[in-house]
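Input structure tokens:
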């Protein structure tokens, strides 16, 4: 198994010192698809980093809409083309489509039309991902952060509808538990799970720091489904030098005990 932390590439040295395997970056901070090539310096930032940047999240900025009356597919196509090309250059293999602000359905907007718009975005993005050797994964978000794709089951409807090898699924323990999803939903989704996010439900701290969550049943479903992919922790306000080793020990112990 490979375990990583969602943080800036500049923190890769701290992440490595704490024993982790990779960094998961923020698309808007590293790949910056709205910037022209002449202004992008992401490759220089990654070159010589202590650990690989193998994934990135926050795919689409809130101002670049995926649903609603302001959607512009051609603008999205140009943006995603830049993101995918840059992701390949820096060695990223997985991009996470959460992007609650971009995909949130405006009040009064037809939800069936919004679903079609999301599917259009997924299809154009999956084709671009295929050209660059990248896997795009759907992230379910809890209802306080977004009003569409709020469960793993719902995320899987898009994955199955797209039926594209470069569009798969992510499971996030934080959102999964907040929405009180049954473990059977994770078991059913296992053939499509390609990425995992972890955080405690209590104030979204790193796994084990709140003492509120037992990850073993969650991990057991992953292990029984044959999962061997990357696992990233995605907490708020993670003090890596202070807590990095302790959190990794907790995650590895819970995984081994599952």
């Amino acid at each position: 198994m490979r375990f990583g932390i969602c943080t800036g590439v500049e923190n890769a040295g701290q992440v490595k010192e704490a024993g982790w395997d990779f960094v998961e970056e923020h698309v808007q901070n590293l790949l910056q698809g709205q910037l022209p090539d002449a202004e992008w310096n992401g490759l220089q930032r990654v070159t010589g980093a202590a650990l690989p940047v193998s994934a990135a999240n926050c795919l689409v900025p809130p101002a670049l809409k995926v649903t609603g009356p302001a959607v512009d597919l051609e603008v999205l196509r140009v943006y995603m083309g830049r993101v995918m090309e840059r992701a390949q250059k820096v060695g990223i293999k997985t991009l996470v489509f959460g992007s609650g602000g971009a995909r949130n359905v405006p009040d009064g907007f037809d939800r069936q039309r919004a679903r079609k718009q999301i599917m259009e975005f997924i299809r154009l993005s999956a084709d671009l991902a295929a050209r660059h050797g990248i896997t795009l994964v759907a992230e379910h978000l809890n209802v306080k952060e977004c009003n569409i794709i709020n469960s793993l089951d719902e995320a899987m409807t898009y994955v199955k509808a797209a039926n594209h090898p470069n569009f798969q699924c992510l499971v996030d323990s934080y959102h999964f538990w907040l929405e009180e999803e049954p473990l059977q939903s994770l078991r059913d989704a296992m053939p499509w799970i390609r990425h995992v996010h972890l955080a405690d439900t209590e104030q979204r701290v790193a796994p084990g720091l709140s003492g509120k969550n037992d990850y073993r049943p969650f991990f057991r479903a992953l292990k029984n489904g044959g999962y061997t992919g990357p696992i990233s922790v995605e907490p708020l306000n993670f003090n890596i030098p202070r807590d990095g080793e302790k959190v990794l020990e907790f995650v590895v112990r819970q995984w081994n005990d599952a």
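The longest strand covers residues 167-172. The beta strands are 2-6, 22-26, 53-57, 94-97, 135-138, 167-172, 193-198, 230-233.
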